[in-house]
Recover the amino acids of this structure.
């Protein structure tokens, strides 16, 4: 996390104040863009099946992907055939839209879409043109419902349900829009979403991330016991939460290496680790499997929803006519 990003979660400082005019410009342009869609001046694409958007109003580290990894199997348990679309941030596919497959690399698909595909096995399509992605899925897979991993601000795509993920610990940082703060939209946007879900809240409408074991980066095999100490390496929005999980499991961290969210790893990034054990997240591990070592591990986590979250989601699915039975 660089100096600017750290400032977003600290008391207001000179750097944030200097950037306020740019935040004002960001607000003006984004508000104008949203108004143009609302007034019909820009065309909105409506898919032939329901679309659920899972996004956030801030950038990085809100826990959106773990929620998608829970949501898709939950919808499948209700008898729905689900497909996922994603912008594929940082991906460099050979063509667009791009279907994630068993032979896809993290460089081609992006870390989060590849993780979703490897964990769930459902159709996953990436590309900035969401309409093209959906139409290809409709031709080739005929899903009953589309889940969009991110895209809350992609107003060109009509949506049946909007779910906004909020980090219960960091919330909205200093509450300012980019670049003076971490927000893409103001907290007032939450009033217009269908469901606000808090990552790290087991009581209200939220979910806890529960640890589900350690796995070897090299071969994805579960390990009964890891090394007792090593280096924590991460390229995620909130590395402190991950590192605290490792310490809670009794692992002594000899060093921590932080890279920018979605960083494209190479073996050279680990030169300072030498022969020490390395601990990373599952999202990081999908980018390191080709050069991972025997003593490199990733921690698998699962979203465990509260009863209130499941109840509200069920009500929404019925209210929107997506599911009419069994809830």
């Amino acid at each position: 996390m660089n100096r600017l990003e750290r400032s977003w979660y600290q008391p207001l400082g000179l750097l944030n104040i200097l950037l306020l005019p740019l935040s004002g410009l960001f607000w003006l342009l984004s508000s104008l863009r949203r108004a143009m869609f609302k007034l019909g001046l820009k065309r909105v694409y409506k898919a032939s099946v329901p679309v659920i958007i899972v996004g956030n109003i801030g950038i990085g580290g809100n826990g959106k992907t773990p929620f998608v990894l829970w949501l898709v199997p939950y919808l499948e348990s209700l008898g729905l055939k689900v497909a996922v679309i994603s912008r594929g941030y940082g991906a460099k596919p050979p063509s667009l839209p791009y279907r994630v497959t068993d032979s896809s690399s993290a460089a081609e698909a992006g870390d989060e879409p590849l993780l979703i595909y490897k964990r769930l096995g459902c159709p996953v399509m990436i590309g900035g043109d969401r309409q093209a992605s959906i139409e290809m899925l409709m031709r080739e897979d005929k899903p009953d419902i589309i889940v969009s991993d991110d895209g809350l601000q992609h107003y060109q795509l009509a949506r049946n349900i909007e779910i906004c993920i909020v980090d219960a610990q960091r919330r909205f940082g200093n509450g300012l829009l980019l670049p003076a703060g971490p927000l893409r939209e103001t907290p007032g946007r939450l009033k217009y979403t269908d469901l606000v879900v808090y990552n790290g809240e087991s009581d209200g409408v939220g979910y806890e991330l529960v640890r589900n074991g350690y796995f070897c980066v090299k071969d994805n095999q579960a390990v009964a016991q890891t090394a007792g100490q090593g280096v924590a390496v991460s390229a995620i929005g909130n590395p402190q939460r991950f590192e605290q999980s490792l310490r809670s499991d009794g692992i002594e961290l000899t060093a921590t290496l932080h890279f920018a969210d979605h960083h494209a790893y190479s073996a050279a990034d680990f030169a300072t680790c030498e022969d020490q054990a390395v601990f990373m997240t599952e999202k990081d591990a999908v980018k390191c499997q080709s050069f991972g070592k025997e003593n490199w591990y990733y921690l698998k986590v699962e979203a465990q929803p509260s009863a209130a979250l499941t109840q509200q989601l069920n009500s929404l699915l019925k209210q929107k006519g997506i599911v009419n039975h069994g809830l």
Summary: Residues 14-38 form the longest helix (25 residues). The CA atoms of residues 156 and 300 lie 34 Å apart. Residues 211-302 form one domain.
